[in-house]
């Protein structure tokens, strides 16, 4: 199963793992998942927000499952594409929302970490080549 593994695959596998399983967290404790995400308690304690978090996180888990599927099929270029786009777009949106909701430290962490993953994808690191 891991015959194709190389150290340069770690960012893609990390993203696949945290999106697949992190996306499932809200089904067990939506409030805690929202607080860890960086949202304030006034949102995390709202039952309606939990429903939205479940819907969003189901889609997040799907991205992780797709990443695992593509990885194990050996489609590393597709993994890089997901890293690049998801890291850039979701990272910016997540950071903006978390910042606007009053958690600038978590917003900066989200922006930097997702930005690094996006750069790895844009560079074609998983596939082993530079696309620039």
Fraction in beta strands: under 5%
Distance between the termini: 30 Å
Helical segment tally? 6
Summarize the amount of helix as a percent range.
over 70%
| Poorly predicted sequence stretches spanning 5 or more consecutive residues | none
Q: Radius of gyration, Cα only, in angstroms? A: 15 Å
Order of helices and strands: HHHHHH
Number of strands: 0
Shape: globular
Sheet having the most strands: none
* Mean residue pLDDT: 94
User: What is the SS-derived class?
Assistant: mainly alpha
Description:
- The model has no long low-confidence stretch (mean pLDDT 94).
- This protein has 132 residues and is mainly alpha-helical.
- The relative contact order is 0.17.
- It has six helices and no strands.
- Helix 1 runs antiparallel to helix 4 and helix 4 runs antiparallel to helix 5 (76-100).
Features:
single chain; mainly alpha; 132 residues
SSE layout and pairings?
Layout: H1 10-22, H2 25-37, H3 41-44, H4 47-72, H5 76-100, H6 104-122
Task: Write a compact overview of the structure shown.
With 132 residues, this protein is mostly helical.
